[in-house]
Write a structure and sequence with these properties.
By secondary structure, the protein is an alpha/beta fold. The chain contains 13 helices and 13 strands.
Length: 383
Amino acid sequence: MDSSILSKTYQQPQSNILADVCALAAKMDNVIDLSVGDPNFTTPQPIIEAAFEKAKQGMTHYTAAEGLPELRQAICDFYHSKYQLSFDPAQVLITVGAEHALFIALEAILDPGDEVIVPEPCFSPYLEQVKMAGGTPVIVDGKAADGFKIDAAEIAKKVTPKTKAIVINTPNNPSGNVMTAEEEQALAKLAIDHNLLIFSDEIYADYVMPGKQFTPIAKFAPENTVIVSGMSKSFAMTGWRIGYLIGPDWLIRAANDVNDAVTFSAPTMSQEGALYGLQHHDELVAPIVQAFQKRLSYLQEELPKISWLDVSPVEGSIYVFADIRATGLNSVDFADQLLKKAGILVVPGLAFGKCGEGFVRIAATQPLDKLEEAVEKMKKLTW
Ligand SMILES: Cc1ncc(COP(=O)(O)O)c(C=O)c1O
């Protein structure tokens, strides 16, 4: 038997820019890895201990498919106290990470041919997920000149009778932008006027630079918004795989039906850890967020001193999207050469969409001294 048994979609291996660069890096020693969006911190100890304790007490079984009732309630309480948004636990579904949350929600709403608008540059799985769920992704190219802002007017141009949803991500991976309340209001109006859903990926909600503010778009389009978020980034819990959806109860019911056929419930011990984390959000998240703010401020200040690099202001997230057009190289060649010449691994902007060409994403997921080492190495390079 050979691979021709694979579905036609998977018979041609798809190009994966990030995987190619990482494969090269894996063969090298002493690489400074600024590619992955995985905070370098270990999950706060009290979360680990709370989950471990619950496991010892016998919390080793399935939970309800929708998730632990206490965790769904804790998510409602958190959104109420932090953002003054009121949700009912029936509007919350616990998932195996935010990525899984978005997929089951798309699967629940899309019929073949339905369109989903995706502003780029973006977290690359969005496009594949729309296609896997039977829809057609419709891309809106961001503009380097305005720092790749998500622009409701540009999105409006792509709305057709087949459009069902828009996927946004703020604070944004990779651009580092945070949508303003005015930008969100314009998008909310568009969604309401055209009866569209907004999938709002808020996984970096806690990562906002001083002076900037994140407002959930659910404030402006409560009936049209589906929040996609999770524990991975704020609590350095990427490996625990806990995310969630918050949306209209009819959508949550359908997404739960999809999920029933895929994973049933999210890991029980991880849900217990997430519950403890959310109940102690501020004290656990603050040190992690402060460390990232320091790193991003450092990169923001030092990178523009390199003649062939430019950086627009970072408003949030854990990334800097750096302009490398002055090198004359495309982003894939640049990343390849940066790795070979300086042992630094970054992600080519092309991995986030065609409009990301000429940029690279630098993740601040290494300690400050590693970032300093990387910057010193970059300062010595010429192209
Ligand atoms: C924008 C965005 N959404 C979702 C995810 C994945 O989150 P999770 O680990 O909860 O699946 C990532 C991870 O890098 C991301 O950058």
